[in-house]
Amino acid sequence: MAQPQTKLGRLVDLAGERSSERRRELLRDITDVFLAEPENHSEKASEYFGEIMGKVAFDLEKQVRAELAEKMAKEANAPPELIRQLANDAIEVAQPVLRESPVLTQEDLTGIANTRGQDHLLAITDRPDIGQELSRVLVDKGDDRVVEGLVRNRKADISRNTMERIVTRAETSEQLHDPLIDRPDLPPDLMQEMFWCVSKNLREKILRHTSLVDESQLDKMLAEVEAAHTPPSAETKAQLSKPEAYVKSLVEQRRLNEHMLVQMAKARQVPELICGFAELTKLDLVTSKRVLFDRTGEGLAIACRANGFDRTTFSTFLLTVDPANARSIEETYRLLNIYDKLEKSTAERILRFWRVRRSVS
């Protein structure tokens, strides 16, 4: 029986054949020889195999390279340089290697994600070993298909910072809504951030999830979020707009109350209303505006209920704050019914999440 090195030497000699058909046969033969006992090859022999396979394969058509990639994709002892070559090839060749090869390191994959097209990035999102840095690059470089693929991959390790950026992106990308809400490691406060841009069904899912968070866990989680952000400086806080300065003066005079907000709404003093509503509900200005102009009215019902605002106050806000979003009588009654049935404790719990923004923005 010929020794492996003798077989290898014969195959090296055959590499000089110029016939495409013969070289395809040669590639199949040498691949079979390698895969017969991949774990028994020395590092040097493995490099030798990889060099020969690469030399032959990359002289042939794409289909042949794709067949080689399929054979090598799951092989833990595959020649690293050959695998890197295949991973950087056309997507028809690269896909199985990008998805499954255990030879590719996080550094290899990050380099590919930084330099290749969207199809290569999408293939990477199927891997079971995506680390935080690779996740970050996929979000940086990827389109919404890539980000959706990453989020659907439950094994992908996504840092909080990257998750925050995905949630921000979801504000203008509906295809990210379902996979994000269904992701078990999405922090509850970031899930609440999505309340403003998702469908009614997903809002209900968010509210159900919020009700399951233990109160002590909620305290701990919100404290960690606040600690992770640098609070605004006193100088920044001092730079008030005219509506903010007006509301501050009302606070100092002890004139800011629910009745005053109703008067602002009826007078169409929208900037002042946003600032006053933020002050009384302890929300930041962005969230205050979101609540008041929420097209569904559900966020407004939650905020008003949590703060003990009267039913007529809620009704006034619904009818006067945003004339461009006029509601039918039926829709108004539906929202009033939601307000009536909403437990104050539930509304207060949700509002705690929304108030986190005030302490970190």
Q: What this model shows, in words?
A:
The protein is mainly α and 361 residues long. The protein has helices at 4-14, 20-36, 43-57, 62-72, 80-87, 91-100, 106-115, 118-124, 132-141, 144-152, 160-170, 177-181, 188-193, 200-212, 215-227, 234-238, 242-252, 258-266, 270-281, 285-292, 298-306, 311-320, 329-341, 344-360. Among the domains are: 1-102; 240-360, no CATH class. The protein contains 24 helices and no strands. The longest helix is centred in the N-terminal third of the chain and has 17 residues, at 20-36. The radius of gyration is 30 Å and the shape is elongated. The N and C termini lie far apart (75 Å). Residues 233-237 have low confidence and may be disordered.
Summarize, please.
The chain has 361 residues and is mainly α. The protein contains 24 helices and no strands. Helix 21 (298-306) packs antiparallel against helix 22 (311-320).
Task: Outline the fold blueprint.
Layout: H1 4-14, H2 20-36, H3 43-57, H4 62-72, H5 80-87, H6 91-100, H7 106-115, H8 118-124, H9 132-141, H10 144-152, H11 160-170, H12 177-181, H13 188-193, H14 200-212, H15 215-227, H16 234-238, H17 242-252, H18 258-266, H19 270-281, H20 285-292, H21 298-306, H22 311-320, H23 329-341, H24 344-360
Helix pairs in contact: 1-2, 2-3, 2-4, 3-5, 4-6, 6-8, 7-9, 8-10, 17-19, 18-19, 18-22, 19-20, 21-22, 21-23, 21-24, 22-23
